[in-house]
Amino acid sequence: MLTAPSSSVCGFDPAGELLFLWRFRRRCVGAKIAIAAGLGALGQASSEKRQPGCRIPQGAVVKTRREMNVAATRAALLAAARKQFARVGYSRAEMGKIAADARVTTGAIYHHFGSKRGLFLAVAEQLEADILREGLGVPGDDPWRRFRAGFEKLIDFCAAAEVQRIIFVEAPQVMGPEAWRKIELKYAYGALHETLPKMIAAGMMKAYPVELLARTLLALLRETSAEVARAKGDAKVRKQVSELVGGVLEALAAR
Length: 255
Hints:
The chain is mainly alpha-helical. Helices cover 75% and strands 0% of the residues. The chain has helices at residues 14-49, 65-88, 95-102, 106-113, 116-136, 143-158, 161-175, 177-184, 188-201, 210-231, 235-252.
């Protein structure tokens, strides 16, 4: 910290005053150099980011640091909760443990999801979205073959422990059967409701009531995936499941 020089007997000390001014000027110059260096570094970093061809497209949404932090916190909580709910179930899952695994406070759970039930619902909906994406991600030109291949793919995906416990066992219990069915309509179950009438209209599937078909196929998926999960990689069991599913789907086929 700068202090004024002490006065001489006459009340004025030229040498001391000059020394004070020299030190003050030197410190100011040093500060200017530091500021200039900092600005130069920022400018360089900014110019490096704005390389030709790397401009942000007009109309693109750029997230703020706060928004990115919020998204990161939410993602960490969902990942931690997903593991806990799959491992010990809803009733035994501890909020403190989930928060600790996500490296946040328990208050963050209430801030983002409102309650333990709200967190469970978010995890379940995330899994439902994964199931829908898995079922739709089957290539091919033949709709019927895509449907069969997608169903087989879903059997293996739904055999995962987290899907078995969270989606097929606990979600109807925690949310209530009717409430959960309404939620399912937004995802794979809803996709079935949209796809089945088109398949019937195209002459690919027998004209049974859509709700009956959807419930039957969902039950088939639940039970066959559970059998694959219990078999723990047994190739013989998986082949039997595939044969059974193929027979049921062929029985539903209109051709």
